[in-house]
From TrEMBL, chain A:
One of its GO terms (cellular component) is plasma membrane. The keyword Transmembrane helix applies. Mg(2+) 2 binds at residues 25-26. The keyword Repeat does not apply. Belongs to the TRAFAC class TrmE-Era-EngA-EngB-Septin-like GTPase superfamily. FeoB GTPase (TC 9.A.8) family. The chain crosses the membrane at residues 279-297, 335-359, 379-401, 413-439, 451-472, 510-528, 679-704, 716-737. GO terms for molecular function: ferrous iron transmembrane transporter activity; GTP binding; metal ion binding. InterPro entries: Fe2_transport_prot-B (IPR003373), Fe2_transport_prot_B_C (IPR011640), FeoB_GTPase (IPR050860), G_FEOB_dom (IPR030389), Gate_dom (IPR011642), GTP-bd (IPR006073), P-loop_NTPase (IPR027417). It comes from Flagellimonas sediminis. Residues 4-171 form the FeoB-type G domain. This is Ferrous iron transport protein B. GTP binds at residues 11-18, 36-40, 58-61, 122-125.
Length: 738, 49
């Protein structure tokens, strides 16, 4: 008969809990050689031998059961509450073979809660390289448990873990360290007051900093027959507990764990000295950043152009193949243009995540965190804030959630408020298209201006996050600061499978997550741009034709025709075509181009008087001082749902009524302002990039900030502050550069 | 044919608007009702509970 059991995977950060979880359940949760990836519990199901079905929980990493932060308290909350539906029948403590001594501290604490506990020693593949040998049998006896030696990288030992979990009934639940030894007299009184409670559980409830079980704690404090101790006295007893545990662990490892330092090989020490050096460390990081941004531009330009052309061709094909009508227009001008606005960025997004994933997998990211901690302390940010800020380069949502590792509330709040300044992947499409349009293609010392601009934008975002933290730190007056400890994981060759999976998943979630929103917005925008209520819209053809008859074509149209003719003449003469043939061709070409220009003027007039044109024109005075026209204004407005909507919106607006096969870039490059200059020039381009660098344009992030702060006050403050700041910076930049 | 094209456009437009309302305007609690404990499904011999 099948039996359901609860299994909790617990361990220090970066010991490979999620890798074990993935291999037990067959799921694919994100893993990395980087501490703090799991901040929420994750669950999965696994069928085990003898018909046992296990409900497996992957819990956030913690160094001990004396918790200080929200993510760690999740673990203790579960282990102390027998009534919790997820209370484990068996705890599986995942440890790292190189840090067994420190990992066993948590193991002994869990074992002392009298929960049947299995010890998994992970990363066994590193043993021979590090000269480590283990006497598993002796260790099992000393720890009074069962041990599985596992290598998740090589997929070894997981069957043994499954066997041990299925046999959990044979596990001993006797404690490793007798809690009474901490203070016999104190624990005696505690036991007398609460005869039915487990002693070590009571002790943990009394000593927790996180007030996660107020009723239980209050019950203990209110017990008249039991006088609790002062905070200082309790701290002393906790120190005594630590000493007792390490005595037990040392005794265990003395006979069962050996390291032959002569056999150990590794570059870790010397690599760390260079990579975290106070000068070379930053230089190396700077060079790595430059390489990444250069690669994003250089490597992805070909696939980007290819995709752009394919979408332009697809749009043209639909127009020519399907019967003419509104639905055909919606497909070619709304849907295809909108989707093209996001798919075009797949190569860049994939390259960005490829590099981030390589840095995480190799263990280098933790060194970056260490470097940044040193750099940022003077600005009032704690080292613990660095992890969210760095992970914010991918997406602000998990980054805001990652602030749960920060125990000090005000410090956590500041980190939540400034994290959206770091350049997330949604800003990348906006930057890339604008840089390509307004920054010249030249190079300096072999580095392209465009790549340098992109890097500068990333640094501006990061700098703004630090600056805002400094200001908020002064306003909110933080007195205490978190203690920062970062796990320096071993350097590893990145696993191709993990890297490929991360790149695929992140790109997929970018395309599908943002893609659905962009598609929906593109459809609505196309509709609003193709319909209108005014007489001007309805009689557009008549009005424009009358105007052309009286005043002739607009300057833009005249230039358009002349430029095309000039280009044709130049090419024809270069090819040696006879002048009289050229003249004939020019005559028929002028007629054709004039027809096109007239159609374009009608389309443009209709768009201006459509629903969206009316709305854009009403909004235009707000964005005019920044150098934007009403079309950009609409793109900026829709971007408040999600930044990446910007390119798709412009692509849709510019393609309404257009019957030419054009790429997004050429459409944007052809736009002129009222004085006949390119609309996307250096001044308006820089102004737009700075606006996007600082504005809070992500509804999902606002929702997650609301959830994490449990109030609308902070997300609204964030939205207001960031948007006003972005507007002012964009305004100043445009007015200076124009 | 023209009527059919109009019907299709309005149908797609309604879907797009409904999606945007669902995504950004409806409170999450209203969408999910009582919070369901969603479990991911694995591969091999491991499935959803």
């Amino acid at each position: 008969m099948s039996k359901n059991i609860n299994v909790a995977l617990i361990g220090n950060p970066n010991t490979g809990k999620t890798s074990v979880f993935n291999q037990l359940t067959g799921l694919k949760q994100k893993v990395g050689n980087y501490p703090g990836i799991t901040v929420e519990k994750k669950e999965g199901i696994c069928k085990l031998p003898r018909g046992v079905k296990a409900h497996i929980l992957d819990l956030p990493g913690t160094y001990s059961l004396n918790t200080t932060s929200l993510d760690e308290s999740l673990v203790v909350e579960l282990l102390l509450n027998k009534n919790d539906k997820d209370y484990p029948d068996v705890a599986v403590v995942i440890s790292d073979v190189e840090n067994l001594k420190r990992n066993l501290f948590l193991f002994t604490q869990i074992k002392d809660l009298k929960i049947p506990t299995i010890l998994v020693i992970n990363m066994a593949d590193r043993m021979s390289r590090k000269g480590i040998s283990l006497d598993i049998e002796a260790m099992e006896k000393k720890l009074d448990t069962k041990i599985a030696l596992v290598s998740t990288r090589k997929r070894q030992g997981i069957d043994r873990v499954k066997e041990l979990i299925a046999d959990h009934k044979n596990l001993s639940s006797a404690p490793n360290v007798d809690a009474k030894r901490i203070s016999p007299e104190y624990f005696e009184r505690l036991q007398k007051t609460f005869p039915n409670e487990d002693l070590y559980k009571l002790w943990l409830v009394i000593t927790q900093d996180v007030n996660f079980m107020p009723i239980e704690k209050k019950r203990i404090e209110d017990a008249t027959s039991f006088a609790t101790k002062s905070k200082e006295e309790l701290k002393k007893l906790q120190h005594k507990e630590t000493v007792l545990r390490y005595q037990f662990i040392n005794n265990t490892l003395k006979e069962t764990y050996k390291v032959d330092f002569q056999a150990a090989k590794g570059l870790r020490g010397s690599l760390d000295r260079i990579l975290t050096h106070k000068i070379f460390g930053y230089l190396i990081f700077f060079v790595i950043l430059l390489t990444i941004f250069q690669a994003i531009f250089d490597w992805s330009s070909y696939p980007m152009d290819f995709i752009d052309e394919q979408f332009a061709m697809a749009s043209e094909w639909i127009k020519n193949t399907l019967p003419p009508g509104v639905f055909t227009d919606l497909l070619s001008e709304g849907i295809i243009a909108g989707i093209g606005g996001i798919v075009i960025f797949i190569p860049q997004i994939a390259f960005l995540f490829l590099f981030i994933s390589l840095l995480e997998e190799s263990g280098y990211m933790s060194r970056v965190v260490f470097l940044m901690d040193r750099l940022m302390r003077p600005f009032g940010l704690s080292g613990k804030s660095i992890v969210p800020l760095i992970s914010g380069t991918a997406c602000a949502i998990p980054a805001v959630m990652a602030t749960r590792t920060i125990e000090n509330w005000k410090e956590r709040l500041i980190t939540i408020l400034v994290t959206p300044f770091t350049t997330c992947s949604a800003r990348l499409p906006v930057y890339l298209i604008l840089i390509a349009l307004v920054i010249p293609k030249g190079t300096i010392l072999g580095l392209s201006f465009q790549a340098l601009t992109l890097m500068l934008l990333y640094l501006i975002g990061f700098g703004m996050a630090i600056f805002s933290a400094m200001v908020l730190n002064k306003i909110l007056k933080i007195k205490s600061r978190s203690l920062f400890m970062v796990e320096m994981p071993t350097y590893r060759l990145p696993l191709l499978k993990n890297v490929a999976y991360t790149v695929l998943e992140k790109t997929k979630s970018f395309v599908f997550g943002a893609g659905k929103i962009i598609l929906a917005i593109s459809i609505v925008l196309w509709f609003l741009g193709s319909n209108g209520y005014s007489e001007d819209f309805k009689n557009a053809e008549q009005i424009v034709n009358d105007r052309i008859e009286q005043e002739g074509l607009s300057t833009y149209s005249k230039n358009y025709i002349q430029n095309n003719i000039d280009a044709y003449r130049e090419n024809a003469l270069a090819e040696g075509i006879a002048p009289e043939v050229i003249q004939d061709s020019i005559q028929s070409m002028t007629h054709y181009l004039r027809e096109r220009a007239e159609a374009q003027e009608i389309a443009s007039y209709k768009l201006e008087h459509s629903y969206i044109g009316r709305a854009g024109k009403a909004f235009e005075p707000v964005v005019k001082p920044l150098g934007y026209d009403w079309k950009i204004g609409i793109a900026v407005l829709t971007s408040f749902a999600a930044r990446e909507v910007f390119v798709g919106t412009l692509a849709t607006i510019y393609s309404v009524g257009s019957d030419e096969e054009e790429t997004i870039k050429t459409r944007m490059a052809a736009e002129l302002d009222s004085s006949g200059r390119p609309l996307f020039n250096l001044a308006s381009g820089i102004s737009l990039m700075l606006f996007y660098a600082f504005a809070m344009q992500c509804m999902s992030t606002l929702a997650i900030v609301k959830r994490e702060t449990n109030s609308w006050k902070w997300p609204l403050f964030q939205l207001g502050f960031m948007s006003v700041f972005a507007y002012l910076v964009a305004l100043i930049a445009y007015q200076i550069l124009i | 044919m023209e009527t059919l094209q109009h019907i299709l456009v309005y149908l797609i437009l309604a879907l797009a608007v409904a999606f945007l309302v669902y995504k950004f305007l409806l409170p999450k609690s209203l969408i999910h009702g009582s919070k369901k404990n969603s479990k991911d499904c694995g591969q091999d011999n491991c499935g959803c509970g």
